[in-house]
Structures are given as C-alpha cells and as structure tokens.
Amino acid sequence: MTEMSTTKDRPILLDVKDLKTYFFQRRGVLKAVDGVNFTVRAGESVGLVGESGSGKSMTCLSIMRLVPKPAARIVEGQILFNGQDLLSIDESDMREYRGSKIAMVMQDPQTSMNPVFTVGNQVEEPIKLHLKERGAQAMQRVLDALRAVRIPSPEDRVKQYPHQFSGGMRQRVVAAMGLATSPELLVADEPTTSLDVTIQAQFLGLIRDIQKEHGTSVIWVTHDLGIVAQMCDRVNVMYAGRIVESAEVQKIYKDPQHPYTKALLDSVPVMGARRPRLYQIDGQPPDLRSIPTGCSFWPRCPAAMDICKTEYPPATHLGGDDFVHCWLAEK
C-alpha cells in the first residue's frame, strides 16, 4: 500500500460526478450505476469494492464509454478527465482517450484476446492506432512492453498465439497491451480473479512497479479486500449502484463507518482468530429494477432504523475527501 502523503495533495486526474447508467429493459429500468461520485488523483490507486452486481464494472465501462448498447445508456452525470468531460465529446474524439490516455485490463485474458492473432499483433495494435508507429519502430515498442511486464524471451513470444501462454502470462500480455501507450489512467477490472495466489502476487508486484516508474493512476475493481489493503490509497465501497462509503484505506480498515463496509470486513477470514463460524451478510443484494426505498441496504442491515426505510441518507463528510451515506453517521 502506498503512503497517503504521496497522493492526497496531487491534482485530480479523473472526477466522476453524479454518474448514472441505466439498462432499459422490457421488465423495467435497471439502475446499474445510480449517482456515483468519486475522484482519482495523479499517481493514485483507488479501489472499487462490493458484491457482484453492485455496479463496479459498469462504472468502469461508463468511464471508457463502452456500455453495452442499445440496452444500456449513460443518462446523467459528468466524467471529467484532466478537466475534459468525456461525455460531451463525440466517439471519434473519445477514441483518442480510450486506449491512449485511459487503458483497461479486462478480467479474463482468455476472452479479451483474439485467438487467431499472434501476441505481437495484438500488443502492436494500440501502438499503431494511437502512437502512429509502424514497422521496426512499432515492433521495438512491443518488445519493450513485453519486457516491462516480465515476459521472458519476448523476441520469440511475439510470434506465438494466446493459447501457447499460461493464464498468468496471458494476463501479463493484456497488461502490456494496456500499458504500451503509457496511459495516465489504468482501469483494472478484477485482473487477478483467474490467477492462483503465487501468480497473483507477481502480477500485483508488477503493476506496482510500473505505477511507481511511470506515475500511472489505477482504478482497482475487486472483491478481494486483501488486494485493496495492499495496492490502494483510497477505497470506494459500492452497493446497489451507489458509493456508500469513500475513505483512505487505513481509515476504512481501522474504523469503517457504514454497516455494509463493516460487514464486508467481518466476512474476511482472519488467521488465528477463533470464530464459531465465518460471518456472512444476511439476505441477498437487491434487484436493481426495484431498489428499496430509503437506504438500499436497510433490509440486510442489523442497525436499520425507521428513517432508513423511507429516506436515502445524505453524504456525511468525515474530513478531507472522505464521506459516508448512513443515517447512523448523520446522527
């Protein structure tokens, strides 16, 4: 985990304001992202955590303007990148940002790579598109990108196909594709899910080294709170399409303010701790087509009050950029 003092005073690179992304379906409107606000500073690592279906990946796809159309649409909000609202520019201008200034590492490298093209072809594609380099110059940059992610014998591996790489090596190649153009922001959407513990540790160390070397900002989307503690400066906890708590990582782990955040931390096994059984959060995440009135977490919250069932809590500011949406904190 990086030191807070190294990032908290840096300029804001990405500022997401009241972002709303909805799916318009025959059975109703599914509010996948429903008023999300957060910032990412230059060189900062920011985590998005929460259960499946909480809106983490859709938030990232909205930032990239890659939401699945026509069902999904960004209906409201701003995505300010270095002051430029990405939602106000046309698609041709957005391509200058996507893959060049903002890159994304997908969850499953097996599906995000084309099996009929060599690894060299696929790493070279963003270099040709965004850096306008060709021939030997482009290939040299491909080799440099593969060396940067610790691919052995890159001169030989560029001629091979994805199926000839192990899972960990494929994930490194996907990282090379994203980092080849030296983006300012890297969006990592659960990149370690398919990796075993040893390879996961190597991959995390690799991204940390690259971030230190180039000053890249990173958004980590993950279920793993251990990765958040290890890699992030700040963490945003998402539930039912909203960020319910945002704070510096040390504060979140030491003194979580939202009952959902506390429940997530209690669900993590602790080595040496004697518990009669592993803690679990009661109930199921809400159907995003019919989110409960008031605080969306109240049906599962052990501390729910009457006001939680009728009114959504406003943001209670906790100092700095930290905030929480909870009536307990408000009171």
CATH arch. level architecture of the domain at 4-92 and 220-330: 3-Layer(aba) Sandwich
Mean pLDDT: 89
Tell me how many strands there are.
12
Gyration radius over CA: 21 Å
Q: Tell me the structural class.
A: alpha/beta
Largest sheet: 8 strands, mixed
Question: In percent, how helical is the residue content?
Answer: 25-40%
Largest sheet: spatial strand order: 6-7-8-3-9-10-12-11
**Number of helical segments?**
12
The CATH topology name of the domain at 4-92 and 220-330 reads: Rossmann fold
Low-confidence stretches: 1-5
What fraction strand?
15-25%
Say which CATH homologous superfamily of the domain at 4-92 and 220-330 is assigned. Answer: P-loop containing nucleotide triphosphate hydrolases
Terminal Cα span: 32 Å
Question: Your description of this structure?
Answer:
- It is a single chain.
- The protein has 331 residues and is α/β, with parallel strands linked by helices.
- The chain has a domain at 4-92 and 220-330: P-loop containing nucleotide triphosphate hydrolases (Rossmann fold).
- Helices cover 32% and strands 24% of the residues.
- It has twelve helices and twelve strands.
- It has helices at 56-64, 91-97, 109-112, 119-131, 135-148, 154-157, 167-179, 197-214, 225-231, 249-254, 259-266, 327-330, and strands at 12-25, 28-41, 45-49, 72-81, 84-85, 102-105, 185-189, 217-222, 234-239, 242-248, 315-317, 323-325.
- The protein has an eight-stranded mixed beta sheet with strand order 6-7-8-3-9-10-12-11, sandwiched between helices.
- Helix 7 (167-179) packs parallel to helix 8.
- The radius of gyration is 21 Å and the shape is globular.
- Residues 1-5 have low confidence and may be disordered.
